[in-house]
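== Sequence, structure tokens ==
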Amino acid sequence: MGCESFKKELDLINGVCPDHPNKPISHLKEKNYFFKLSKYQDKILKFYEENPDFVKPRTRFNEIIEFVKGGLEDFSISRETNKFGIPLPFDTTQVTYVWYDALFNYLTVVQDDESKWWPANIHVIGKDIIRFHGIWWPAMLWSAGYDAPKQLLTTGYFTIDGQKMSKTIGNVINPVEYIEKYSRDMLVLYLFSAFPIGEDGDFSQEQAILAYNAKLANNL
């Protein structure tokens, strides 16, 4: 409940969603429309081979390469039982699946000056949505006659006590409140210096204060 993607049994870890371990699992059965992702498998693998820096860091790229090699399945682009969403133009009894609609916003937002902004030089994304951006998105673009973005920079999670920071879980640190309590410089310094790009980082208020004092307040 609250996860934005369907999970199959093999995606679960000990019967729970890896991204929402405290949320219950529900089993759904409904009729959906599908995007024919399976027909793009060979083209995607060839694209990866010709663009070895498409996904950074390489460890994330290796993950999706192996996933594609394992065989691609067509994916659902609509929801029947969820009525909150944009109705499909060809079937108003179904609404567009959020991830199918959301990806197109990268392109539709720049169509007034498309030649300047597309294809995008880089998408900066979280590691949990690499399959959407690294597999689905190029295939969706190709199907509509567009080029894929040039590169994906994949970041890790900010965690709190080892758990992913998530609106769904409710353990989010509000950056505005944090800046008002401490300082913007302190937050920016800590985020840039404590967490390597692509890796997870456990957010510690105590470590943020120590870093601020050691690198800025006491020295600069």
